[in-house]
Specification:
- The chain contains four helices and six strands.
- By secondary structure, the chain is of the alpha/beta class.
- The protein has one domain: Tetrahydropterin Synthase, Chain A.
- It is elongated, with a radius of gyration of 17 Å.
Length: about 150
């Protein structure tokens, strides 16, 4: 049986700041992210299964990624927990969705977090193959399972 890769694309808006960075990204700023999730597995061979011939229903992959990543991070401000200023944390009505993480919220570190969140919710017969997070139209970071085994 052949292994097949499926990829689903997502888009979301997110702001962040890179505390201690030696350039303008140390200030709060936002991006229109494009996020690509690629899984791998074998198509279902049971002709009586409603997803016969599929590795995973694209709809199920969409639901999983939206629940674990997009719905949480879209239109949020992501800051490293130990560098977030207290006055900002207390401005819930102004800031809205504030996510405090234990890492510097770079594209690279976001991918590590996203890979963990997605992997633990995939069915046993499906493996996360890769992630690609485009921060701008010319800059992106990638995560591959084969680099992390």
């Amino acid at each position: 049986m052949s292994n097949i890769r499926l990829t689903k694309e997502f888009k979301f808006e997110m702001a962040h700041a890179l505390a201690g960075y030696d350039g303008p990204c140390r200030h709060i700023h936002g991006h229109s992210y494009e996020f690509f999730v690629t899984i791998t597995g074998q198509p279902i061979t049971d002709a009586n299964h409603p997803h016969y011939g599929m590795v995973m229903d694209f709809r199920e992959l969409k639901t999983l990624v939206r629940a674990q990543i997009v719905d949480e991070f879209d239109h949020s401000l992501v800051l490293q927990r130990n560098t977030a200023p207290d006055p900002l944390i207390n401005l819930n009505d102004f800031v809205g969705r504030l996510i405090l993480v234990d890492y510097q919220p770079t594209s690279e570190n976001l991918l590590i977090d996203f890979a963990e969140r997605i992997s633990k919710h995939l069915p046993d017969n499906i493996r996360l193959f890769s992630l690609k997070l485009c921060e701008t139209v010319t800059s992106y970071a990638e995560w591959y399972a084969s680099d992390n085994d």
